[in-house]
Amino acid sequence: xxxxxxxxxxxxxxxxxxxxxxxxxxxxxxxxxxxxxxxxxxxxxxxxxxxxxxxxxxxxxxxxxxxxxxxxxxxxxxxxxxxxxxxxxxxxxxxxxxxxxxxxxxxxxxxxxxxxxxxxxxxxxxxxxxxxxxxxxxxxxxxxxxxxxxxxxxxxxxxxxxxxxxxxxxxxxxxxxxxxxxxxxxxxxxxxxxxxxxxxxxxxxxxxxxxxxxxxxxxxxxxxxxxxxxxxxxxxxxxxxxxxxxxxxxxxxxxxxxxxxxxxxxxxxxxxxxxxxxxxxxxxxxxxxxxxxxxxxxxxxxxxxxxxxxx
Length: 311
Ligand code: SF4
Ligand code: SF4
Fold this sequence. Notes:
Elements: E1 8-18, E2 26-31, E3 52-55, H1 65-69, E4 75-77, E5 82-84, H2 86-89, H3 96-99, E6 106-109, E7 111-114, H4 115-126, E8 134-138, H5 146-158, E9 162-167, H6 173-179, E10 185-189, H7 195-202, H8 207-219, E11 223-230, H9 238-250, E12 255-260, H10 266-271, H11 286-298, E13 302-305
Parallel strand pairs: 2-8, 8-9, 9-10, 10-11, 11-12, 12-13
Antiparallel strand pairs: 1-2, 1-7, 3-6, 4-5
């Protein structure tokens, strides 16, 4: 890979051997920071842009080393576990709490990684991908770190590595213009067509999201795949499915990938002292998913559910 690389990005995970986030077998790179706060998010550790302490309760022996080490008095105990007051913690960056936890109960979620380190990992994984594989940048919202993301995509693209990103759509349009020449797949979430409901579920308006979706549909030359994270009681009404289908038709797109809600991220909220407000949201039944799929198909939109896709 070449020189002149933007030096550092902030990531919270790298996963090899993924088969659900783009074609073939892929290495996923999770970048930290997102502009949305979707109440069902399964990667809450990707929302805050800065590294932060994360707590593994089962490893904690309550010796209180972390409480004494934190110079900001952000940590207390309720007798059975420690609690970090995140309004005081402010992710101070010196991580004395983590440094003084010898059991591994406190770790740092998120780290800076140099382009050199990351590209070395990518090159190592490359031999396992097979024909169609590559990298997928996800998060969080990978386009929030536009300098790093653009550099990484460009380097990989120029090294003949297949490049994909997953995006929430809520970033300036210019970011898409910058990465488009080096990106083969864009996987783009549509969460709700109604602006008030979109704000209720994600904390932000959908206007920039829809503008970007329309711009990409017209201008992006690679594969543009829209995804609907299906959240029962939030965006699964007939009205929203019909509005989503109508929007896709209007911008010239005729397929969608519906991703059913799961609760696998629930425990991570507790580890970050966050509240998982989707806890009581029921999961979709197979019948419900069939109904949604048929409704899209009836409107002229090919609909793939979950990992059951042709790619
Ligand atoms: S230092 Fe680690 S093991 Fe000790 S109380 Fe804190 S989190 Fe638990
Ligand atoms: S990250 Fe810093 S402020 Fe936050 S709990 Fe740890 S030592 Fe205290």
